[in-house]
Write a structure and sequence with these properties.
The protein is built from seven helices and twelve strands. By secondary structure, it is of the alpha/beta class. Strand 7, helix 5 (157-160) and strand 8 (170-174) form a beta-alpha-beta unit. The protein is globular, with a radius of gyration of 19 Å.
């Protein structure tokens, strides 16, 4: 026979699971319509953090097959160490089976590999991912610009824009959205991650855990506009620090241009 104490423990445990663990498993598909007239779709997958991630490669594959994007953009923070690269392989392998062209930038956690960053970029490239480190490519009717991580001082806007075609729309992918505060070159759309939508939906969280001027202003997810253009911040797939979220679901984003 249940006691009030047992019922209380079960209720608290259920609440804890529903608010902190379930959000890391229950993948949300966000949708953004940029209305650029390109008739192209990009699936953004950000902040995989494979060491702290409860979303399976199969879940990502299911979304990709359902949404049928023209391109996949990976916006950084895959691993914290070289030994975790093996855990990244199933995710890359799953996405590679779709045959969708993939592009990536690196994030601040990736640069924890320091001199071994080549092992990560080699892994990405071996799975058909083009890594853009302050580089641009011309795709089907637009420029895709990959700007390296701002927090670790790897970003070089001038270098990234060097081969941009002025007559085509500019879509930027980068990891840390704080870059937009210093951007001098225009863009028609920018995709970023890094801030995890707070990860913990608590008042004043970014005062307790400083994450830069954007977060301090209350800008940590969704669509916003900077002087250089509009930008979107993904809540990301995996977690930083501890493998929990509080009232913030993991997400991938479908961008229609």
């Amino acid at each position: 026979m249940w006691t009030w104490a047992a019922a209380f423990v079960v209720a608290v445990g259920g609440f804890g699971y529903a608010t902190t663990v379930l959000p890391t498993r229950w993948l949300k598909v966000e949708r953004v319509n940029w209305q650029l007239g390109l008739q192209r779709t990009i699936l953004q997958v950000s902040d995989l953090h494979v060491e702290r991630n409860r979303v399976s490669p199969e879940q990502l594959l299911t979304v990709c097959r359902s949404e049928r994007p023209d391109y996949i953009c990976l916006t950084g923070d895959y691993v914290d160490s070289q030994r975790a690269i093996g855990r990244l392989v199933p995710y890359l392998g799953a996405l590679q089976t779709t045959g969708v062209p993939m592009y990536a930038v690196l994030g601040n956690h990736d640069y924890k590999l320091r001199g071994r960053i080549g092992a990560l970029t080699d892994c990405l490239q071996a799975h058909g991912v083009t890594v853009l480190r302050n580089e641009s490519v011309v795709l089907d009717g637009f420029n895709l610009v990959g700007i390296d991580d701002f927090q670790t001082k790897k970003s070089d806007e001038w270098k990234a824009y060097r081969n941009v075609r002025a007559n085509l729309p500019v879509i930027v992918m980068t990891h840390d959205p704080t870059f937009v505060l210093t951007a001098t070159q225009r863009f028609d759309a920018l995709m970023a991650g890094h801030l995890h939508g707070k990860q913990f939906q608590l008042p004043f969280f970014y005062y307790l855990k400083p994450m830069g001027p954007l977060a301090k202003r209350g800008i940590y997810a969704g669509m916003h506009r900077a002087e250089a253009g509009p930008y979107y911040i993904s809540k990301g797939v995996g977690q930083s620090g501890i493998n929990l979220r509080f009232l913030v679901r993991s997400e991938v984003t479908v961008h229609r241009f």
